[in-house]
Amino acid sequence: MRPDTPAENVDHTAEAARLERTAGLYPEDTEALLLRAAAHLELSGDRPAATALYDRLLSDAAALDDPHLVRALKASNLWEYDHEAEARAIIDGIRLSAPRDPAPWVIVAESLEAHDELEAAAETYTEAARLLLTDGAEPPHATHPVLYGRHRVRRMLGLEHDDWDTLADTLHHAPVSLDELHDPKRVWSLGSDNPAELEAEISRLRAELGAYREQLSRPFPVAVLHWPAGELTELLAAYPDLTTEYPSHEEHLATIESSLRELSASGTPNLGIVTGTVPSYEAFAASESSSPSDTTLLPQYATTLAARGRAEGWPPERGETCWCGTGRSYQDCHGSTGR
Q1: Which tens digit of pLDDT belongs to each residue from 216-247?
Q2: How confident is the model at residue 80 (pLDDT cuts 50, 70, 90)?
Q3: What's the pLDDT score for residue 148?
Q4: Which ranges constitute the DSSP H helices of the chain?
Q5: 8 Å CB contact between 127 and 96
Q6: Domains (range + CATH), the chain
Q7: Other C-beta atoms lying within 10 Å of the C-beta of residue 218
């Protein structure tokens, strides 16, 4: 649930500095870029510097998209370098505020779990499940880590399966079941003093999680540019030469879906959609010393947005809303097989 997992074998300090410089160039992306920079600083071992970045973001919490996420990351980081009391205070505050985003819940629960607070972690996951999961509705993809984490902690505590544990089993489609993956013996074996036993367990985990690690290490998605209706109207009014590229908004949306399906069918991985705005596009054109009417800028603009972490993965998970903004589920909108 953390924002971006930095790749291995990189200079984390240098990458953090690069991301901070980029945040200065793109103020609208400051939150995402500084969170990635903080993740690199944590990996470099400079946890106080990571905390400084979290504090920098929280100094204007009202401007953040997800202040609870930033606080959760700060708490997790603080606990790792002996600021337990402050971390616990932040965690208690997050639980009391009951955020509607799953990510802060997962981060604070994982932090509790990492410090052997299994009962508190289980309670935190359960609080999140009660708040975020609607009875009878298919859980949104973003809530799956809540169910998986809850399953893992309850398995470690030796508790019997309940309905949410069964639901987690149903949602988990990997070859290895959650019960086996979360077997306490397997977890405990990672702390074994027997080198052969430890090596065998690490090999099993690598085999099971190889695909997931590969996905995390992928570069930013191959992204297709999406203009909401209002933005497209404004764009074409200002730059009528682009009408040949976008005859109508409906055709624009259909082209996005068909292009992504063709890319997927050809085996292209990690596809995504980025949403454009006219001011952002005009600023990009100016930075390229070109005119916004130049159609060759459009794919470059999409790639730049994706590189700045603005891409949403395609296709949406089952039950999630369509990327086009109608509010309908993807399966009932552009994901319909009849399209």
Answers
A1: 444 556 889 999 999 999 999 999 999 999 99
A2: very high
A3: 93
A4: 12-25, 30-44, 47-58, 67-80, 84-97, 102-114, 118-132, 144-157, 163-171, 178-181, 184-189, 195-216, 229-238, 249-265, 278-287, 297-307
A5: no
A6: 12-174 (1.25.40.10), 183-217 (no CATH), 222-332 (no CATH)
A7: 11
